[in-house]
Design goal:
3-stranded antiparallel sheet, 8 helices, alpha/beta, single chain, binds adenosine monophosphate
Length: 191
């Protein structure tokens, strides 16, 4: 099971909940939503039974405050982090990757340069033709998101290294190699 705080926040924005309304402008500008809002949304989601067997958190934690809160939350449940995976990509490659991506309504991801559907305009997975791009996946906002990453999220690398759970992954490789490396890490730590 994979849980993305970005997906949870986008759902809150779409549903116009108070948290979504507060997060909307920050997300559009590529900044980080407050720890308070992100933790409330995640805490709520982690209390559902489908995550009891373990979960891959995507895009969380993004600050030391979130990491510490996650440690306490898990400790209360008698659980702990088994691995923290750092996917490492050059900034310029990251801008090209994120600003060229788009998604089918079924969830399958594509890229203008690196991953085309085999028939142009038709999803390989579901045959659908409705594709969307995230509003924050433009080069300017991606640069702000990278600045937030370097200022607030990169310190988590030494935080998790200190806890001996850090897995660094060279994500400059191909999609297939990264998928294989990620799979090996996740299978290796699955409880
Ligand atoms: P993502 O889908 O992970 O790229 O996240 C999209 C946007 O949602 C980010 O640029 C932030 O504005 C916000 N966001 C997602 N996860 C977090 C988080 N853990 N902490 C703060 N903001 C977040």
């Amino acid at each position: 099971m994979q849980l993305s705080t970005g997906d949870l926040l986008r759902a809150a924005v779409a549903a116009k909940t108070p948290a979504g309304l507060a997060a909307k402008a920050v997300m559009a500008a590529g900044g980080l939503v407050s720890d308070e809002i992100v933790l409330a949304i995640l805490n709520d989601r982690l209390s559902k039974p489908d995550v009891a067997a373990g979960v891959v958190l995507d895009g969380f934690p993004r600050t030391i405050g979130q990491a510490k809160a996650l440690d306490s939350l898990l400790a209360e449940k008698g659980q702990k982090i088994t691995a923290a995976i750092s996917l490492e990509v050059d900034d310029a490659a990251m801008v090209a990757r994120v600003s060229g991506r788009y998604t089918c309504a079924c969830g399958e991801g594509y890229h203008d340069e690196f991953k085309h559907p085999s028939t142009a305009g038709v999803c390989d997975k579901c045959g659908g033709t409705a594709f969307t791009r995230r509003a924050d996946d433009n080069a300017e906002t991606v640069r702000s998101r990278l600045a937030a990453y370097h200022a607030q999220t990169a310190p988590l690398i030494s935080y998790y290294d200190g806890k001996d759970v850090l897995e660094r992954l060279d994500a400059m490789r191909s999609i297939a190699e990264i998928r294989q490396n990620l799979h090996a890490i996740i299978v290796g730590v699955a409880v």
